[in-house]
Batch of 4 targets.
Target 1
Amino acid sequence: MPKHDTHEIPQILAHLPLFLELAPEQLSHIAENTREKRLQKGEMLFQKGDMPRGFYVVVFGQMKLAFPSSQGNEKVINILGSRQSFGEAAMFMDRPYPVYAEALIDTLLLHIARNAVFDLLAADASFARRMLAGLSMRLHALVQDVESYSLRSTTQRVIGFLLQHGETGGQTNQNNGSSNEVTIALPTSKQVIASRLSLTPETLSRIFHDLANSGLITVHGKDITIHDMARLRQFDL
């Protein structure tokens, strides 16, 4: 895992969207109440039922938020990457975490203490607005998830996932002269992605196979080539 010295915390915070507009003295106050947390792949950050003492920001790496089940399975709620934050809602409500958090790869987090956040909220209305905007976006995403699971077919969920990653992180293939062909790298294992989409791993594999047979995608391990974004978008409507 790459090394980050403690004295770099102010520089890391200054480049996070939530803290971009803070005055130097405000940033210094936050930094004084921020600690690094390093996790190895598979290491738990907190369990469902633990009490929060602040919230977290991912510097690099990948975190999974999930519900455990009595059958030993899990429901993945979110997969978080660099510059994303989590745990704010539980912190504000002063209630136990409703999920557990696990590192999917080696990860560096910043833990910002609750008291420092409350001090800044009282002093800076713009910071309060940015934090509310972040929580509102997360609520909107949750509503979209419920709508997707309720109204969209299993194939549509997978296509939506592929299109989202193709538009935000895909690499256009120039060799074949087509600007519509995009290759994406799956951000995590197919089992975790299946849980995130409320599917079984077998169903996800079957849908990938069906899309490949239809000439829409090619699967090479974690690399998936979308041959035509527009055709994929129109499939299974």
Target 2
Amino acid sequence: MIVNYTVDGWQIIYQQAHGQLAAQLAWHWPSFGPADRWVGILSAIAQHDDEQRNWDGHYGITPAGAPANFTMKEFSLEQAQALMKAARFQGRWRGLLTSMHLSTLYESLRGENATTDAFLDEQRALQSNWRKQLKVSKSEAQQAYDLMHWCDRLSLILCRHELPEMGRALEIYTGQDGQRYDVVRPTGEGPVTVTPWPFREESFVVSVETSTIRQLQFKDDAELAAALREAPISTLTWEFSK
């Protein structure tokens, strides 16, 4: 979950919904490569945070009983393996991009334990084999993954309310081509812009659904899940304009 504390209580955005928002952002980029691979990129982006772990007692809450933001959770090998398994059912290209994402997220954990190292080694081997089988160069794979990482990053900036104030710029991501992109909201409640502008259209709207719960503490996952099932749902929207 992405958890924001607001004047109305806990604002919850599911990580799967954040993935859908990332895919909305990718949709507005000019497509590149064959159509089947472009669709694969969109699928990888939309589903990059799927297969979340089941709440098994207190997984969804902090020791103090508050809803746990995803940044508070440790690496879940179970979730990473499930994500790879699901990706592979959609083909090697989707699997390649998902594997690259997991390497990017978790390579820094190398050396902590043998099980994690084995998983990271497996990802490297899979990526090499799939590039050869698909006849995709490292550069071509990186171009596709750079878009995935870019959209993931911008979606998180939006979902976590990290747009800077007073028209200041915030870096989104710099890819293999060295091009840096910044997100800016020139006025407090006005349209958002990205410099340089990478999208097809001169303006568009993206959105994500949120749930709001007023209860501040929960005894266990079951109580939090029950509150979320009854929570009012609203939609956050952002207008992007060149």
Target 3
Amino acid sequence: MAARMMSATKQFGVHLLLSQAATELLSSEAKSKMRHLDTVTVKGSSVAQKIYTYDAKHIGVDFFLYSKTDRLANLDSDRFTPSSWKTDYDLLAMRRHVSEDFIQTFNFGRDYYLAGKWENAIKSLKKANNMMISTVLDEGCVEYEVEGLSEERLLDENDTDEEVIRLRKVLGDGPSMCLVQFMENRGGIAPRKWDGFRPLTSK
């Protein structure tokens, strides 16, 4: 299962994917930070399960532990508790691009998608993707140069400039774009026999 999750990270544009079984082992505080991305079956199993990610960016983060010695950093890690998810400077800094409005909008889109209301799902997920781009730009979490390109252009999905398309992919929300692409590749309409989950591919 770990291999299935690892191979699918590229598809969703995330660094980490957790199975439902692994997520259920976490503390309630940790679970509250995980984002339900999709519901899938994996190769070798017909059981549908939710998959999750932990949203975090390291680009542009002024890590608190960089100012500590290795010994002190290791001592701090030994003192981690469930409350650290809400108080640790590094974890908070790596998630500053994740707003409550974004999570709510993504969740609306994901739920529409799972319910087979794909037209509404695509609208919500595209909105969530643009919200992520705006926040990343506003917070300075930018890995690539965007000089010469206005935020308005980067938020315009109809702009066909190659650099705009590339940067939208880099700055946007991988899971939102993954689900939108899956639906649009099938005409934007859920199949008649849509059961609220899909086979997970690693492409």
Target 4
Amino acid sequence: MTEERKTRLIRAAAAAGLVAAAAYGWRGCTRARPFEGVVGGNGRVEAVEIDISTELPGKLKDVLVREGDFVKAGQVLAAMDTAALEAQRRQAAAELRGARSAVATARSEVKQGEAGLYTAQRHAERSAVLEAQGNVSRQEMEDDHARLLSATAALGAAQARVDGAEAAVEAAQAAIERIQTDISRSSLKAPRDGRVQYRVAQPGEVLGPGGRVLNMLDLSDVSMTFFLPTAAAGRLALGDEARLVLDAAPQYVIPANVSFVASEAQFTPKTVETESEREKLMFRVKARIPAELLVRHILKVKTGLPGTAYVRLDSNAEWPARLRTTLPP
């Protein structure tokens, strides 16, 4: 046998092996009809993941939880260094005190200006009467009128200083509120109950806005994603019952409900022309475990575990005995 012929045979055998492996994998993935009237697909247990990230740039001061810890909504999980923000808050507080003092001074000047304007008005009115009677010179009347204009201008300037000082007070108060908000945002809190999965950053690291510190799981939203062929997926409805069997604990059967059915096929080819080819189309399906069941067994909930999800082709049919709910104590 020539070397060229040997090479062709090896290549043909390898190609046949790949085809066989692909066919076996597709059959293993779909697990079509392991029980009468039931179809299933392989998947893994997944939970909603939440990244705990910084809102502001800065140095990570402390991480208060460890991987695997259960946390409650609102619990502080990590803290950023707020020394610079605290200094800014003290500066803004000092500016606020200065602005309030300026308001008090300006208001005192307004009162003095009002008194001066009242006096100038009385003198101007008296001078006008006396000038009409010929008892005062016109120059004196004009001097009193000039003093009235000056008092009016002084009062206007004092009122403007009040307005400016009050605006400075509002600006300082807004600065303090903003800084206080930034300080509050520097405490990274859990948005909901869950379990810490990964610790991404360590104290002392300088992070930018959006820097990941922790990754946590919402253990009240756990499901298994699997794939079903067109004929099976087309008969499902949201809320249909499902059963999950984990490879690690095959003696248990976990109840679930269909929470998602993809509107488009996930596997290629996406566009086909023959009925036989359409049978190769697979649709992504999610089966969600009831939240109350998860709460009762929260310490035993683990994600990433492989298993099989089963659904009935007829939702009115009884589950086979092997797939009736069996839960751990």
